[in-house]
Each structure stands twice: as C-alpha cells, then as structure tokens.
C-alpha cells in the first residue's frame, strides 16, 4: 500500500552485512564554506530544533538553477571560441537500469549544448577492449569528460578501468588521484563525485549549518558514502560512518544533527534512528513493489519518509531530492573540464 513504510524486522547489523560487505565500492577550487546567518534548522543548546514541521528539501529548483547557468556558460563559450564541451560514455552490456541512466545523462547534456558520443560494448567485452576504448577517449581533444557506466560485468576489473580514465576527464570524480586529493588536507581534486557534491549543495542552499555539527553517513561506497564523509569533513562537520561492521547503528545515528544515507535498503532508517530535529539527506534509490502503481513499482529511499517527516526538521524526498541535483553536478563538472582544457574563463 502506497504511503506505508514496510520496515525490516531483521536486525540492522544483518542488513548492513548483507548489503555493505567490505568488497562494495560501489585546479578546481571547492566551494567556500558558507555559514548561514539565519536558518530554520539552527540547533538549540540541547540538540533539538525549534520547528513545527519538517521542511521538504526538493532538489528540482536547485537543479533547474544550476542547469540554466551551465547552459548559459556553454552558450557564452560557443560564441567566444566556437567550441563546446564534449562527453563520451562507455556502456558495457544491456542492463536496463544502466541504459536508462545513460539516456538521462545524454538527454541532459544535449539540452544544455554538450556534445555527446557513446560506445556500446557487448556483455562479454574483454578488459583490453574496454581499456582501448577509454584510452582513445583520453587522447581525443574534443572529449572533456569520460563516463564508464557502472556497474560493469563481473569479469571486468572495475578499479583498473577507472584508473585508466584520465584524471583531467574524470567527471565522475572516481579516479584515485581525485579521490585522494579530496581526502588530503590542502589538496584540491580536479573533480568531486557528483552525489556528494549534490548533498552538500542541498544542505547549503537550504541554509543547514554544517560547521561543527555531528554528521553520520550510512554507507561507505566510493560513489557516495565515502566521498560524502570526506566532503562533510572539508566543511568542518564531525563525521561518523556507519557500515557493515557497525554495532547498534541506530544508536549512533540518533546522536547526529545531519544524517546522510546511501545503502540501497528501502526504509531501513525509521524515526527510531533519528534525533528530533535532525536534517536528513536520503541518497538511496530503491524500487519496491506497488500494485497500485501503473508500473507495478515505486521508487523509495533508505529512509522511511512517512515516519521521519514527523521527527526531523528537514528531509530530502525520494524521488525529487538529491537525484536531480546529482545530474546537474555532472553537467557542471563537464563544463569545468572544458573550461580548463580551453583556458576559458
């Protein structure tokens, strides 16, 4: 039934162990740290917010604003130097979800004026063939961003392939050089992964204080969890990560001013995981059966929205929260890469 959270009765530790095993992995200047002067989510001395109802932090208006600015900059670039950014995508296999994600990215790029190309490789593609394709895009001066759509088939070495993407064209931000520079104090990555970048952008735009606050990130994947933890630390939050070996995760999250979740377990985070007045960013995207839906399923996050909204001060919806901003951050990364390549300011 739509609107009702079906909570897992399995112990949280067992759920995390099943989903977050250790094998999961699943010069740009970072935005300045902004300290809001006024906010609906300012903490009281006892850690509880003074709020009547949760604010819904929609990502759609933020994404619309960012995409509009990217399109304007690309138009200015084309008028000034006659060139535009270029994105190359490599898609291996025929996973429907991967194809859908790629189509969304290509459509968004075309809308703002980014030229795109895609190479589709068969499911049984060899490692060497895939690396050859990536190397070709590395050498192509008209390509400013390269995306190898993940996940790859199991016989391919994902880490090795990502390592072959030029750090200067790694618009996903997954290359070890970019990830390493994100972790090192005083270093600047060429690109920040899009999902963590979107998370921080949402918090800042909605006036949520990050500096000095206790933040818990549920999950430690390279795509979202790990890099979100690093980025929150750059904004001077005190960060704790909950993962597959964490005992009593709900006790840890209940002490957090900011909770970010990306584990891919529908509705695992309920009101009993959350401190009253906390701010929640739900980065999970899960399909659950819904006979009342025309498609037979609906999209939900990791957080039981109907429970959480009664407790927290602000929360992102799923869908419509982090997702739209993630896409806009990808477009922004591609634009930044082209600007560096062209020396365009």
UniProtKB/TrEMBL annotation:
Q: Which reaction does it catalyse?
A: (6R)-5,10-methylene-5,6,7,8-tetrahydrofolate + NADP(+) = (6R)-5,10-methenyltetrahydrofolate + NADPH
The domain of life for this entry's organism is Eukaryota
> Which pathway does this chain act in?
One-carbon metabolism; tetrahydrofolate interconversion
**Domain Tetrahydrofolate dehydrogenase/cyclohydrolase NAD(P)-binding: from-to ranges:** 193-341
Which keywords are on file for this protein? Hydrolase, Multifunctional enzyme, NADP, One-carbon metabolism, Oxidoreductase, Photorespiration
Tetrahydrofolate dehydrogenase/cyclohydrolase catalytic domain location, by residue?
57-172
GO MF assignments? methenyltetrahydrofolate cyclohydrolase activity; methylenetetrahydrofolate dehydrogenase (NADP+) activity
Which biological process annotations from GO are given for this protein?
photorespiration; tetrahydrofolate interconversion
Signal peptide coordinates: none
Matching SUPFAM superfamilies = Aminoacid dehydrogenase-like, N-terminal domain, NAD(P)-binding Rossmann-fold domains
Name the GO cellular-component terms: cytosol
Output the InterPro entries linked to this UniProt entry.
Answer: Aminoacid_DH-like_N_sf, NAD(P)-bd_dom_sf, THF_DH/CycHdrlase, THF_DH/CycHdrlase_cat_dom, THF_DH/CycHdrlase_NAD-bd_dom
Matching entries from Pfam families are given as: THF_DHG_CYH, THF_DHG_CYH_C
**What family does the entry list?**
Belongs to the tetrahydrofolate dehydrogenase/cyclohydrolase family.
Q: What does this protein do?
A: Catalyzes the oxidation of 5,10-methylenetetrahydrofolate to 5,10-methenyltetrahydrofolate and then the hydrolysis of 5,10-methenyltetrahydrofolate to 10-formyltetrahydrofolate.
Subunit note: Homodimer.
The record's listing under PANTHER family reads: C-1-TETRAHYDROFOLATE SYNTHASE, CYTOPLASMIC-RELATED, METHYLENETETRAHYDROFOLATE DEHYDROGENASE
Q: What is this protein called?
A: Methenyltetrahydrofolate cyclohydrolase
Give the organism the record lists: Malus domestica
């Amino acid at each position: 039934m739509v609107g009702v959270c079906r909570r897992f009765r399995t112990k949280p530790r067992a759920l995390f162990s099943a989903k977050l095993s250790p094998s999961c992995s699943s010069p740009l200047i970072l935005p300045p740290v902004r300290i809001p002067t006024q906010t609906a989510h300012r903490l009281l001395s006892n850690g509880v917010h003074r709020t009547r109802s949760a604010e819904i932090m929609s990502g759609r208006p933020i994404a619309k604003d960012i995409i509009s600015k990217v399109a304007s900059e690309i138009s200015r670039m084309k008028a000034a130097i006659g060139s535009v950014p270029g994105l190359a995508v490599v898609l291996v296999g025929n996973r429907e979800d991967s194809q859908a994600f790629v189509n969304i990215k290509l459509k968004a790029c075309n809308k703002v004026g980014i030229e795109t190309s895609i190479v589709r490789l068969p499911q049984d593609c060899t490692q060497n063939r895939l690396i050859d394709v990536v190397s070709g895009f590395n050498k192509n001066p008209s390509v400013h961003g390269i995306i190898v759509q993940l996940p790859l088939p199991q016989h391919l070495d994902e880490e090795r392939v990502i390592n072959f993407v030029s750090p200067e064209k790694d618009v996903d931000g997954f290359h070890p050089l970019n990830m390493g520079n994100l972790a090192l104090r005083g270093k600047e990555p060429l690109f920040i992964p899009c999902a963590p970048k979107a998370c921080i952008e949402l918090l800042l735009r909605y006036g949520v204080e990050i500096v000095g606050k206790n933040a818990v990130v549920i999950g430690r994947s390279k795509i979202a969890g790990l890099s979100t933890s690093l980025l929150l630390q750059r904004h001077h939050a005190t960060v704790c990560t909950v993962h597959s070996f964490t005992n009593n995760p709900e006790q840890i999250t209940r002490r957090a001013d900011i909770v970010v979740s990306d584990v891919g377990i529908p509705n695992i985070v309920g009101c009993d995981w959350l401190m009253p007045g906390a701010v929640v960013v739900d980065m999970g995207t899960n399909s659950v059966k819904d006979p009342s839906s025309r498609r037979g399923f609906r999209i939900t996050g990791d957080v039981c929205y109907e429970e959480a909204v009664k407790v927290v001060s602000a929360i992102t919806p799923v869908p419509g929260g982090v997702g739209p901003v993630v896409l806009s951050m990808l477009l922004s990364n591609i634009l930044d890469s082209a600007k560096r390549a062209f020396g365009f300011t």
